[in-house]
């Protein structure tokens, strides 16, 4: 088995995935990035300067593609898969009562089942290297976010999956972690939130909440992989929500009843 460590990242064509790919590559890891966006993948590879990096056009809903690309990547990596970063996801918002059913199905299929696919299929590869499964959850997994109900539900699921597998896979030496970022400056913020026509980004800014850079999340991903905590909170918003959920649940409930989209 090669001595160079290897990470496979979904959603590597932009945002958190791109920033994490660059960081791990800079620190000497072999990096595989997957995304449905071929152009985004090419941009990430160019920013990384090539090197020990491979890209794979893949939809996380496609189980056959998972197997094919993990086989391909571990062949190149000398059999190693030290980290599988389940990061791909989409951002959706707006009133649930008005949501399109196809969009609801797509959100659950990508944000939750896509992560479950990665975990189920990736386990065999991670067990060989006694590696780490890292999942991207969200501050919306701390307390359900008004105007982001389906997105929150999927991220709660990701958080629950992380906790369950941390116990289930302990005996095999496979660590399971997640990062729980607040609002990150990525294209996901272009979606519509709450009861207004504003984007999530506009609503976040109007509510006086801060945006965290993708580079900051990448550093948190590095720390999560190398640390002992199951959950790693990223950014002031995530830490504040975690504090409020524990110590001020009534206040947080009233805030959600007002709705993120109505603030500002």
Q: Would you write up a description of this structure?
A:
- With 264 residues, the protein is of the alpha/beta class.
- It has a single domain (6-262), classed as NAD(P)-binding Rossmann-like Domain (Rossmann fold), CATH 3.40.50.720.
- Helices cover 48% and strands 15% of the residues.
- The strands form 2 sheets. The chain has a 7-stranded parallel beta sheet, with helices on both faces. A two-stranded parallel sheet has the order 7-8.
- Strand 7, helix 6 (200-206) and strand 8 form a beta-alpha-beta unit.
- Helix 1 packs across helix 7 (214-226) and helix 4 packs parallel to helix 5 (149-168).
- It is globular and about 55 Å long.
- The model is unreliable at 260-264 (pLDDT under 50).
Index terms:
seven-stranded parallel β-sheet, disordered C terminus, 264 residues, alpha/beta, two-stranded parallel sheet
Taking all Cα atoms into account, the compactness measure Rg is 18 Å
Number of strands: 9
Number of alpha- plus pi-helical segments: 9
Number of domains: 1
Assembly context of the chains: single chain
**Named CATH topology:** Rossmann fold
Estimated helix fraction: 40-55%
User: What's the CATH class label?
Assistant: Alpha Beta
- Tell me the strand percentage band: 15-25%
C-alpha termini separation: 55 Å
Query: Which spans of ≥5 residues are poorly predicted at pLDDT below 50?
Result: 260-264
Second CATH tier, the architecture: 3-Layer(aba) Sandwich
Which term fits the overall shape? globular
Structural class from helices and strands?
A: alpha/beta
CATH superfamily: NAD(P)-binding Rossmann-like Domain
- What's the order of the H and E elements? EHEHEHEHEHEEHEHEHH
Lateral arrangement of strands in the main beta sheet: 3-2-1-4-5-6-9
Q: Give a short account of the largest sheet.
A: 7 strands, parallel
* Mean pLDDT across residues: 88
InterPro entries: NAD(P)-bd_dom_sf, SDR_fam
GO molecular function, one term: oxidoreductase activity
Keywords: Oxidoreductase
Pfam family, one: adh_short
């Amino acid at each position: 088995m090669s001595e160079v460590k290897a990470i496979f990242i979904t959603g590597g064509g932009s945002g958190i995935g791109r920033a994490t790919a660059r960081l791990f590559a800079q620190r000497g890891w072999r990096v595989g990035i997957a995304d449905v966006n071929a152009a985004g993948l090419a941009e990430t590879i160019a920013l990384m300067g090539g090197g020990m990096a491979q890209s794979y056009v893949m939809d996380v809903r496609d189980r056959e593609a998972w197997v094919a690309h993990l086989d391909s990547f571990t062949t190149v990596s000398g059999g190693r898969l030290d980290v599988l970063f389940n990061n791909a996801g989409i951002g959706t918002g707006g009133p649930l009562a008005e949501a399109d059913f196809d969009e609801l199905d797509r959100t659950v299929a990508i944000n939750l089942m896509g992560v479950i696919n990665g975990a189920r299929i990736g386990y065999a590869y991670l067990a060989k290297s006694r590696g780490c499964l890292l999942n991207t959850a969200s501050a919306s997994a701390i307390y359900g976010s008004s105007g982001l109900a389906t997105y929150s539900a999927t991220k709660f699921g990701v958080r629950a999956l992380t906790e369950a597998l941390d116990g289930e896979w302990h005996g095999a030496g496979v660590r399971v972690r997640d990062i729980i970022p607040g609002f990150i400056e990525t294209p996901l913020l272009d979606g519509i939130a709450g009861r207004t026509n504003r984007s999530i980004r506009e609503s976040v800014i109007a509510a006086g909440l801060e945006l965290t850079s993708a580079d900051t999340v990448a550093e948190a991903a590095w720390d999560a992989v190398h640390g002992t905590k199951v959950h790693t909170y990223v950014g002031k918003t995530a830490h504040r929500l975690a504090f409020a959920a524990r110590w001020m649940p009534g206040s947080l409930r009233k805030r959600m009843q007002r709705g993120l989209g109505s603030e500002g």
